[in-house]
Structure formats: C-alpha cells, structure tokens
Amino acid sequence: MTIIVWAIVGLALTAVGQPLMNSVTDSSTGDFLPKKYDSAAAIQIAEKKFDEKPDPNAVTVLVARADGAKLGPQDQKKIADTAAGLSAKRIKAEPEQFAKDFSQTPRYTVGVVAPDGTFQLLTLSLSGNANDTGLQDVYRDARDLAKTDYQAAGFRVGFTGGISSTVDNLDEEKDTEALVGALTMGLIILLNVVVFRSILAAILPLLAVALIGGVATGAVAGSAKLLDIKVDPSVPSLITVVLLGIVVDYFLFLMFRFREELRANPKMDKREAAANTAGRVGNAITCAALTIVAAFATLGIASFGQFKVLGPAIAVSVLVALLGSLTLLPALLAVTGRAMFWPARAWKKERPAGFAARLGENISARPVRYLLGSLVLLGALGAGAVGVKMSYDQHGQPTTNATRTADEISRSLPAGVSDPHTVYVQTKAGGKLDERSLTGLTGALGKVEGVGQVAKPVLNPDKSAARIDVFLAAKADTQKARDLITGPVRGTIAKNTPEGSEAHITGTAAIFADVATAVNKDLKLVFPVAAILIALILFLLLRSLLAPLVLMLAVGLGFVATLGAGTLVFQHMLDRPGVNFTLPLVLFLFVVALGTDYNILMSDRLREEMDKPGPARKAVAEAVRHTAPAIATAGLVLAGSFASLAASPATAEIGFATAVGILLSSMLLSIVLVPSIAAILGRGLWWPRRSNKGHGGGAGAPTAYGRPDADRTLVTEPQMAGGYGPAPYTGQQPYPGQQPYPGQPYQAQQPYPGQPYGQHHRPDSHG
C-alpha cells in the first residue's frame, strides 16, 4: 500500500510539477537583489517611471547585406520594413499538457548602424521565462522566420544576447548533457551491480529517486505558487542533483544493513528484517537529513533573494526525501526481501577478512598513525586555499552563433552594445528634468575610460525621470566591466547627478557587482549559523559534547581541503583570476551537508558497537568493517554524479571540486579520520554520556546481566536439564535462552528482540 500511494502521488506530481515550476521561476537576477543596492534601485525607477522592466530575454539582431557591401539608405529602409512585417506575425506555440501557452507576437525595434556601415542592429523582445522550453521553442520559430524573411530581401542575420545565448548554449551542449545523464545513471547501476551482484539493487534506487523527485518538485512548485514566491531557474536542477545523491545514499545505507540482518538471521521474515533495518538506520538517516535541511534552510536568512528562496526550496525537497527514505524505501525492502539481491548467492555469507575488515583492524591497532596521515593530507590540500579569490567571469562557455555574432558587433561598436547598461535619473521633490540639465552627467560619462558610447537621454512623459544608455568597451559579463561599473562609472554618476535628483545604473555588470557584495555578506552570516544548527542536531543525536565537536572539526577540515584543491587546480594551475564565486557555497551545501551524512552513519555505528561489552578498539574495528562498504559505495555514487559535470566546460570547476570533496568526506573523514579519533579516545568520545556497558576489563565492570564480576566470568543461569557451568567471559552477549557451549564462548551478536544489548531481564534469569 505504501508503494502504491507513493507511485500514484509521484506520477501525478511529476506530470504537473515541471510546468508548475516553470510558472514560478524568474530568470532576472536583478529581481533577487535587496532594494538598497544601486542596480535594484535603478530597476525600481524603470518600472515606476517608464513602466518597463529590463528584459533578460532581449535579443540583439545583426542585419547585414548578404554580399558584404555597406548598407545604403535603401537597405536601411528594407531592414526597417522587414522588421515591421515580422512584428505583425504571431508565433503560434504548441504547449504540452499543463504547460503555459507562450504564443505571442515578437517585438522588433530598429537600432544603430555600425560606424563603417556594414550592419545595423535590431532588438527582438519576447515575453516569458527564458528557461521554459515553451518560450525557447517560440524563440526558435521567431529566429527561423526572421532568417527566412531577411534572406528573401538579400540580407543575412545573426542573433546574440538574452534568450538567444541561452538557447544556443542548450543546443550546443545537448549531446553533452545527454552523455552526462547517461554516465551518471550508468555509474549508479554499475556500482550497485558490482557491490550487490543484483538487478533490483541497481534499478530500484533510480525508480525511488524518480518518484520522490516528482513529489519534491510538485511540493516546492506548489508552495511557491501558493505563497506567490518566485524561484531561481537553477532550483529544479539542484533538486534533482540533491535528491539523486541523498536518496541513493540512504537506500544504500538501508540495503547494506538489510543484507546484514538477513545474513545474521537466515530464517527471519523479510518484513521483520525490513522493519529492523529501518529501526536501526532510521535515526541516523533522520539526523543526516535534518543536518542537510538545517544547512539549506539557513539560506533563508540571506539578503540575496536567490539564496533566500533556494535554501527553503531544497530544504522542503530533502524533507520529502526523508519521508520517502523512512517509508517508501523500507517498503521496497519489505516487498522484495531476499529477491533484492537476486541472482547473487554469495551475499548470504560475509567475507571474514575483506578489505573493510582489514582496514578496521589496522585503524584500531595504529590509530595515531592513521590520524596523522589524514591530517597531513588534509593540511596539504587546505594550503591551496591560501590566497583564494572569487571570480565572476564565465569560463568554459561554448562557441556558438551567439558568441560569434557578439564578436562581430564588438569589432565595429563597443562590446557593450549587445548588452547595454542604463542610468536612470529621477527627481526627488516633483521637479522636472530636461536634456540641458543632464549634459553634465552624459558628458562626464562619455569621458570615463572604458565607456565606449553614451546615448542621448530619453525623458519619461512627465519629465520626472530620464534614462541614459551607456555602452561599455568591455563585455558586460567580465570582471573588467564590473570593476569599471563599481569604480569610475558609479563614481562619475555620484559626482555629476543633477541637483535635486538621484541616479542609479543597472545592467549585467552592475547587477553582478551588487550580487558579489550581497553574496560575500551573506556567506559570513550563513556559514556560522548553519554550523551552529548542525552542531545542535549532532548533540541531540549523539547525546554527547565531545563527539559532535570531533565531527564538526572533521567536516571543517574537509571543507577547507576541498576548497584548497579547487583553488590549486583552477586558480593556480590553470591561471584563472579566481574560483567561481558560487564554489564556496556549493561546497558548503554539498560537501559539508551531504558529507556529514557519512560521518553520522559511522558515528551511529561506533556508538552502537561501543554500547556492547568489550574493548573500545574492537568496537571501532567492527564499526568500520560493517559501515565502510556502505559509505564507500555511497561516496563513489555521489562523487561520480558530480564528476560527470566535468564533461561540460561550463560546470567543470564545480564538478571537479565537489567530487573531490565527497571523496574526502566518505573515504577519508568518515572511514579513517573519525574512527582513528574514536580508537584514541575510546568511550571517552561520548563524554559526558556514560555507557551502560563494560569497558572491556577491570574489576567491577558490569557483566551481561548487570552484576559486577571481578574475575570476568559469565554469570549463567542455574543448570537446567544438564546445563553446564560458567564459561569464560569474552565480551560477547549470550543469546537469551541458550547456554554457552562447554568450554567455548558463545559468539552470537544479536540482541533479544525489543531489548538493548546487555539488558536482558527474563523472568527466569538471575539478572
């Protein structure tokens, strides 16, 4: 019944979720800036005084003679007439079910002629979300229609900027994205087949991700629609990546423990085994998911709107994933049972001396050596973070028709012509503006080094505001343009604004310069608050002060080492001006939040093993033996998913750094660093929590039945029906109702159902 409910809800929300998500996304970065920033203030003036909004979809169209000759007056008339004809032709869309209908009439505006007369520029405007496939199809139809009409008139055309660049990049990387998706799915299937030798174990996690992802997308989109909130276009793809990582991870954690249950109890009913598995791993999964929720939800306190909306959206998705992990995934195990591992048979018996077992023994025997080795590696990588710089330049963008058209324009006109900036001026006390009052400002802007051209001022109808287009000599999406805007341009505007008025500038470089300021401010707030929340969750799970501090320290070292590795490769080795400005946040969210999952799973098993009687180091070895395979497999799956992003030059930096961070978190921090610290500290790791079990030695240590026993012999029941006398105590718990074999310790590891280890109080026992 649980599976059926998830299937119905998942399929239903999958059908409506993506169209609904497209309706609540906003592709204008400037809309997410607080109003106090200069570029946001300029957008407010544009909307209030000119009833217009800077259009992120605006396309610059280059029109030139097909024979390469210069344009004459007759040619310019033909270009204008053809543009007018195109502006009267409605583009009909064919939306899919539940999708928005983007049918509309394109708007063409005639622009400047190149100084050498070789081409003229037009502006094409379309309404809608540039990331919606429906609007992208409308743009393609409008583009093809314009090419046909201008070709018939003897001209060639090129398109750049706005939705043109978006569509060209998507078309250029379509095959790459398909390859990345296939590689990711193939990696997950391959690893699961190698680990479990099973078909269902390889396929079911992906089906679970699909159902849970559909519900999560619908929940996020529905919440945004209900609350009238706009989300960033990156949210859907991030939801997919996050859910793919954590759902597959949690399924792996459950399957490894499920296999362990079935191995230890060959005759156990599959539903009972699934219930026991969910009970044992459920707490760790819940805590792990809540740390991710805390990390992402903290973004809700950010000032930058994209963060403010992104955090809660991902947090909602993770909560849906948690619900699925505690209900859908155990239900799948309960239904499939031992068939989950078909056709393999070797899973029924554990290899006594596998790699994980040997690693656990080595760490428990020489913990200081492993701890120092881990710290040296993390320190070496972390040293690369010294001198890290943030870069807002776009690296690795493919060469497309849009980039070639932009390059052609920049050879005759300022590079910023295809992506202009606009200064908006408005009076403060109901005064009036005229062109003469603005000559000082326009003249001063024209003299700024790096400004290629300044257009004449355009006044609004009541002359209370004016707009002045500024064309930079540098491309708008470069650091040079941002430095120019934040320095000389804004300084000149401040000094030459007409008295009794205010002036602000907006545009790509201006917006991203303000975004950089907002992001730097937010990161200083988000990181410590999220760290405190994660620490509180760890305190509640582990009921200890020292263990959470150890985990937080490990995660912090992993974050610095990962950032250092990315800086070493991309800033120093590839000689870039810095790392992508989103990298610290991405690493924090994915490496710290997701990487903490592995530490929590290991810590939970360490505590479970240490709660049994026996030496603490033996408990560490057992925890590594049982948990390392699950963590290693999950880490490889998640790291491989992110590493596949490196196939695209535009996402290579994030793909590489995140994959390195996940590998460090899983293979080094969780499997080596944390266990080695646990072996050194012993049960002191859980201070001030006191264990109810013996410490593996010493007079007076509690025995299995809770009585001090200095000679460390197992206190057994009275001999019944020829029972045997006391057997040596070995730190292992006897299975209730059975006596140890004469002269040999009983090796069973299973607790009595419903009772914790070492607390069996049967009516007929001496305990």
Automatic annotation (TrEMBL):
Cellular component aspect of the GO annotation: plasma membrane
Subcellular localization, as worded in the UniProt entry: Cell membrane
Pfam families per record: MMPL (PF03176)
UniProt domain SSD: residue ranges: 222-335
Matches recorded under InterPro entries: MMPL_dom (IPR004869), Mycobact_MmpL (IPR050545), SSD (IPR000731)
SUPFAM superfamilies in UniProt: Multidrug efflux transporter AcrB transmembrane domain
Transmembrane segments: 178-196, 203-223, 235-256, 277-302, 314-341, 368-388, 525-542, 549-569, 581-602, 623-648, 654-681
Domain of life: Bacteria
Annotated spans, Disordered: 717-767
Keywords assigned by UniProt, alphabetized: Cell membrane, Membrane, Transmembrane, Transmembrane helix
Entry membrane topology: Multi-pass membrane protein
Biased composition regions of type Low complexity, renumbered to the chain: 726-736, 744-758
Family designation: Belongs to the resistance-nodulation-cell division (RND) (TC 2.A.6) family. MmpL subfamily.
PANTHER family listed in its UniProt record: MEMBRANE PROTEIN MJ1562-RELATED, MEMBRANE PROTEIN YDGH-RELATED
Protein name, UniProt field: Multidrug transporter
Species per Swiss-Prot/TrEMBL record: Embleya scabrispora
Lineage: Bacteria, Bacillati, Actinomycetota, Actinomycetes, Kitasatosporales
